[in-house]
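Chapter review. Work through the record for ATP-binding protein before attempting the end-of-chapter questions.
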Amino acid sequence: MSREHTTRVESTRGVTHTGDGHIYVNLGSAAHEPRKPVFRQLPDDQLRWTRRVLVAPVNMGRARNTLEETGTVILDGAPGSGRSATARVLLREHHRPGGAFRELLPAELDELPLYDDPAFVDPGDRLLLDLSTAEAGLWHAARGGLPALRQTVRERRAHLVVVMPHEGALDPDLQHFRVEIGPPAFPMEVLRRHLRAHGVPCEQFLRNDVTVDEFLSERKPMREIADFADRIRRARETAGPREGFPEWCAAAKRARAGRHAEVADRVAGLPDASQRALMVAVSMLHGAHADVVHRAAALLLSTVGAPEEETPLLQRKDLAQRLSEISARPGPDGRVRFTELDYDSAVRAHFWDHMPDLRPHLGAWVARVVESSDPHLVPDIRDGLVARLAGEFLRTGRPDALAALAERWSAQGAGRARSEAAVQALTCGLADPAHGRDFRERIYQWCAYRRLTGEFAQVLVQVCADVLALDHPDHALIRLHHLARRERGTAHALQALCDLVAGSRRLRRRLLDRLARGDLAPTDLAIFLRVSDPEPLTDRSVTTRALVDEDGVRRSLITCWRAVLTHAVSRPEGRCVASRAEVQSWLHWAAEGAGDRGEVLLDLLVAAADRCGEDRGAAFAALYASARQAEFASPGAGAHSTETTDLLLHKIGVAQNLGPAAPSASARRGRS
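Structure tokens for ATP-binding protein:
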């Protein structure tokens, strides 16, 4: 099966994200209820954020001019110089309606054929090929396809930025496009730009600070500077009222150094199971209301089978005292946090790494917590809990266990909360740089081959439509196609697939080609009839060329329509199925809305019928009968539908060598 892997932004709807951190996706409705998916806003938000915080590197102007003049620039530079961020900003500057941001992923080998297929580059596209960390073999394979890709980009008036491995080999004919960038001359300006973007007041960070000076005394990669700025931002958000910029920076420095030994000592000094359970609960629900944390700690003790406390209720330590013993406290809003920055991540890592027998219980515990009815357990707290559990699986190289947990959560009888947790767990896996590819492949295997039970099919629909489509829409299309072919009793996957292609000419072209190359089983025919809406096929509002003007699209449409017509006329029960309604829809649009593309629609239907072999005559008859019926159901006055029927009859006659080559006078008037 052919699979092309890309990142593409083709809509302004969807999940938003403006910096580092987890991505949280909520179903927003019952898991078994379909809803309109959201697509592909995330990368565009990241582009805007990157542009906001980027301090221009050395040679930024030259790179900008090269891209403007040639449509292509190849960025070189030492690691940490900001190459990838510069590439994204350069492409963001060429944003225009109709184009899309796409990140090509050559590390997945079946991406490379995209180089030779112009159909996968649309006018105005902005393409990023980030090979900054590629090994020599991959770089050699990728650069071999660059001349063809660059030519396609130029012809389509698109833009291409390639980030090459530092000091990697480059063919002489591509040297003209190479620009070597260097890090900004003033690292302090990079830090201040990030702090300003995080909302830290200028009067705070413009002062000299010994911690900042020490941090910047040695040249740091741009990513480390960005991470340090984010720690300062988080220290400010949790600081006391009398703490200022020096204290925020000091807290960021301590967090950067790590707290593993400190946490190990604290845990060793807390032998009581209830205190350790509270410590785990705070670390996994950091920032949650105290009521949620208290209930979660009790659920953890129950989940691991700890005996109930025998001390009378009024003699037990209150929650404030117990929190203080683990260096945590509730804020004025009742939300509980550890007093030291990044202490929560160190606690999670300690219990996960040094109490491996606890791991199997944590999945069941999280499921029980997310199903709680506490009013303070709001969606972002639930999602954060799942994301932190997923983070431990991924940090320690256990993506298979995380995937299995998501599947168990959405088993038969799973409610909305557990289904949402499964979506969030898979979202974390897909977003992980080290394991994202494994999760994409695992989801493909589920969609294509696994017998799906319970709510898991709808979870996969949601993940593909709302998450995978954000930056891998081709992957989402393939997986939704498999789900749509296999679903029974619902049309959630089919609707998600239709919504996906509705926002993209390229994806509609891709799906039509995929259908035409397949076996065209009855389920595929039903999918084709849903995605072959003639209006977008004849639309020329974005480009001067409609999809039906493309040879490849015409071949796909003829192949699929031939299968539809053959299926309809070879089965008596099929003569009145949806195919007839779809034929009438094409005829109505040809008569009333397609303009000069209306005759092309008729040509495609006739060509499809002409290829029906022994059913050819019956197919022609079915087309003509549909046209006559369409006249009575015409949304317009009906005159154009009659003329369209006459023209269709003429074309059928020509195909059968039964009529003159020229259409009748009424048919000519209908096309004029």
